[in-house]
Amino acid sequence: MGIIDFIIDIIRPGNGVDYPKPGDMVTVHYHGYLYDPTRSWNRGRRFDSSIKRGRPFTFQVGMGQVIKGWDIGILRMSLGEKSLLTFGPHYGYGENNVELLAINGKTLQSDSSE
C-alpha cells in the first residue's frame, strides 16, 4: 500500500449550502475502520461506531478536540452529507500513540454523516 494522505469520497451529497465553520458544534454518526485495500471501499476491521452505541458524537469542529482528519474532513461536508474520509496516521492517532496501539501507524477510515 502506498502512502495515503487524505481522501474524501462523497457517498450522499448534503445540501451544498450549510457548511460548518471552525468553532461550530457539530453532531455526527460514524463508523471507524482500519484501512484494508483488499476489502470493499477499503474498509478493514471496525474499531469504533457511534451508530452501534446508539448515540451520535458532538464536538466543536476545527478546534483540535478530535483527530486532525475529522477537523479537516467535517469542515468540508455540508449539512446532511455522508462521506468516507480516508487518511494516514499523521491525520489520525499518529505513529507513536501508545494508548491506541492496536491502530498505531495505520491508515484510518471514518464513514461520517453530519
CATH architecture: Roll
Shape assignment: globular
* Total domains: 1
Number-wise, the strands total 6
Average pLDDT: 81
Low-confidence stretches: 97-107
- Give the helix proportion (percent range): 10-25%
Number of helices: 2
Main β-sheet description: 6 strands, antiparallel
- Quote the beta fraction: 35-45%
H-E order: EEEHEHEE
CATH class: Alpha Beta
- Structural class computed from helices and strand pairing: mainly beta
Span from first to last CA?
29 Å
Q: Radius of gyration, Cα only, in angstroms? A: 13 Å
List keywords for this structure.
single chain; Chitinase A, domain 3; 2 helices
Textual characterization of the structure:
The chain is mainly β and 114 residues long. It has one domain (6-113): Chitinase A, domain 3 (Roll). The protein has two helices and six strands, in the order βββαβαββ. It has helices spanning 50-53, 68-75; strands spanning 6-12, 25-35, 43-49, 57-60, 82-87, 108-113. Strands 1, 2, 3, 4, 5 and 6 form a six-stranded antiparallel beta sheet that branches. The N and C termini lie far apart (29 Å). Mean pLDDT is 81; it is low at 97-107.
Please give the structural blueprint:
Elements: E1 6-12, E2 25-35, E3 43-49, H1 50-53, E4 57-60, H2 68-75, E5 82-87, E6 108-113
Antiparallel strand pairs: 1-5, 2-3, 2-4, 2-6, 5-6
